């Protein structure tokens, strides 16, 4: 009964600007249910729950799409460059679902090393009756290999923190570099590619696995710069600066303001131990402005 009532509350308030009353409902009902609810954002839907370790909980609390502004920017660039979209670290489909809905005649490629994340994506694909998302349960890195992967939610901050680990008790997951994946005949890309990379510290490795692609295609990458990147490189600051300069890459913040690689590195070095990230950036092998 509680679930049915709260779903009705969601349906009533989800598209209203003033949600103060809704927050009162949320604070009460969160103690009574562990069920999933459907958030209908008009063009697409998402399953969400009260679970404290679910990223979807933020959407349920705020009735706003996850990373809405980033998704809008990616849609803008897909239209501007008539590009393909590749989602690395797709999780429950916060990016892939709305973008697949926006470009119904275009294939979207989604990757995640987590079986649990892929299952959440699959549920949202079915919920939205989407046919154009091609998803793959593999890791993305700088070489073909295998590593142990931790998706034990009790050991992690939330279900967006699934990550590779040195714990040999965890299941092994296959890892591929995007250069090799893009050679597969099942992957049909346009000459312009927009890639979102959110891989819990594997982001730079995924970037290094794009060397050939950067030479053949016009590529635009949305990537999070965080201290987790340091864990997967012998000398991240030196390697990252060299990679950017060698491949003649441009770095922008989300306001499309050009950033020097040394400026980004300096900012990352300066953040205190309580902060993991300096935010999302756009890396491209061509000038955006």
Q: Which terms summarize this structure?
A:
289 residues; alpha/beta; Rossmann fold; 8-stranded mixed beta sheet; 4-stranded mixed beta sheet; 11 helices; 35% helix
Task: Explain what this protein looks like in three dimensions.
With 289 residues, the chain is α/β, with parallel strands linked by helices. The chain has 2 domains: 2-61, no CATH class; 68-284, Vaccinia Virus protein VP39 (Rossmann fold, 3-Layer(aba) Sandwich), CATH 3.40.50. Helices cover 35% and strands 24% of the residues. It has 11 helices and 14 strands. It has helices at 2-13, 20-29, 56-62, 68-81, 96-102, 115-128, 178-181, 203-208, 211-216, 236-246, 261-270, and strands at 36-40, 45-49, 84-88, 108-111, 133-136, 139-141, 145-150, 163-165, 172-177, 192-197, 218-226, 250-252, 258-259, 277-284. The strands form 3 sheets. An 8-stranded mixed beta sheet has the order 5-4-3-10-11-14-12-13. Strands 6-9-7-8 form a 4-stranded mixed beta sheet. The protein has a two-stranded antiparallel sheet with strand order 1-2. β12 (250-252) and β13 (258-259) form a beta hairpin. α1 (2-13) packs antiparallel against α2 (20-29). The protein is globular. The chain starts with a helix and ends in a 5-residue tail after the last strand. The mean pLDDT is 95.
